[in-house]
Amino acid sequence: MLFSKHFRRREAPWEVVDSRLVSPVPMWDEDSEMEVLRMHDTDLLVELQHEIKNVAELRKAVQFARLRLMKEASQLQYNILLMEGWRYTLLRKGSRYRLDVVYSGRPAYATGKIISHSPPPFIGMLDHCRHQMHGFVPAIELAH
Q: Labelling 142: which of 3, 40, 65, 135 has CA 20 to 30 A away?
């Protein structure tokens, strides 16, 4: 018999507490003083999982995922991301919390006046999430 009729899950599953998505948006305007010489055919993705102890780690996890994507892009000889987007899913199992982050971007190689990298798009949304989570995620210590 392939499955026992007494099949039971040995541990509790991860429960989704919150999920947010920022669809890819352009990070450079056409008026900038740079010239795009080549662009990757597709978007690159970085997927990371973090055990978190407080809500302040949401922002750090998204920023870290972006840094990892930029590192992968630079290994492919690209120096900017033309489009960027991200999503996170906050999961809970008992008193443990895990954050799954997926960061995507379209890498390119550009010359000219390239301004240092701006923060991830709509990263301020995480500050709003932090206030919302205060009500339904009491087990996570909120950093001030």
A: 65
For 119, the token pair is 């923060």
Per DSSP, what are the bridge partners of residue 100? Answer: 49, 89
Assess contact for 100 and 47: CB atoms under 8 A: yes
Q: How far is CA 130 from CA 14, 24, 59, 125, in A?
A: 20, 22, 10, 9
Chain segment 65-118, per-residue pLDDT in tens: 999 999 999 999 999 999 999 999 999 998 889 999 999 999 999 998 877 667
- Residues 38-55 have pLDDT tens digits of 999 999 999 999 998 887
Contacts of 93 (CB under 8 A, 6+ apart): 11, 12, 13, 14, 15
Give me 70's structure tokens.
Answer: 């930029």
